[in-house]
Design goal:
By secondary structure, the protein is of the alpha+beta class. The protein has helices spanning about 10-20, 85-95, 125-135, 170-175, and strands spanning about 1-5, 25-30, 35-40, 45-55, 55-60, 70-75, 100-105, 115, 140, 150, 160-165, 165-170, 180-185, 195-200. The protein has a 6-stranded mixed beta sheet. It has a 3-stranded antiparallel beta sheet with strand order 1-3-2, covered by helices on one side. The radius of gyration is 17 Å and the shape is globular.
Length: about 210
């Protein structure tokens, strides 16, 4: 389980780990109640930390089938003026290791203009910078099952804004390892971001038609 914007310190997240029954965790503390990243896992996998920052947690996973691959939980900077640094971080991470790789999280940017409704129009230049970073990293959008948008300002009528800011990407090697994986958008729960579930599978999954 990967959480972003936890706004909590490690001691509080440890209580959540115990309550939810996970065996391991990695925490990037929030700063003055802003940000914060949290990764938890159970004893069915072995997790080795590779790197972390305020914008990512990068680990190598050995799963119960003895497959080794890389997971990066990513958090794009919420300030547009700083987002270029997030894309530079993504490029640096892409060049570090030669492993099957999946990277997911809140990128706080959209991939095309149709991924936003309401509010001011998104500048194409900002979208292009994100798309170029993804292409440079040789990643592809894994698509999804479920609701079209992952973030909402929770308003109605003319004031309503919704965007797909949360995504999952993978490289060719990871897709070949888990060719039938599915990303499912779940219902909103105490957040303006939807949780989503990544089902890793090398066999067909029922109800996996993607958008």
């Amino acid at each position: 389980m990967f959480l972003m914007e936890t706004k909590c310190k490690q001691d509080k997240m440890e209580k959540w780990r115990v309550k939810l029954g996970y065996s391991g965790m990695l925490v990037v503390d929030s700063v003055e109640k802003f940000g914060g990243l949290f990764l938890m896992w159970d004893d069915s996998i072995v997790v080795d930390l590779m790197s972390y920052s305020s914008g990512h947690i990068d680990v190598r996973i050995q799963d119960k089938r003895n497959k080794s691959w890389r997971f990066t939980g990513f958090y794009g900077h919420p300030a547009q003026s700083q987002r270029f640094n997030s894309w530079m971080l993504l490029r640096r991470l892409a060049g570090l290791y030669n492993l099957p790789w999946v990277v997911l999280g809140a990128f706080n940017e959209i991939m095309c203009v149709t991924k936003k409704v309401g509010g001011t129009d998104k500048k194409w230049q900002e979208i292009t910078l994100f798309r170029e970073a993804v292409e440079d990293c040789e990643l592809e959008d894994m698509g999804f099952v479920g609701a079209k948008f992952t973030w909402s300002n929770k308003r109605e009528g003319a004031a309503a804004i919704a965007e797909r800011l949360d995504m999952s990407f993978c490289n060719k090697e990871w897709k070949d390892m888990f060719p039938f994986s599915v990303v499912r958008h779940l219902d909103f729960w105490k957040s303006d971001h939807r949780p989503f579930l990544l089902e890793c599978s090398d066999k067909p999954i029922y109800g996996s038609k993607e958008n």
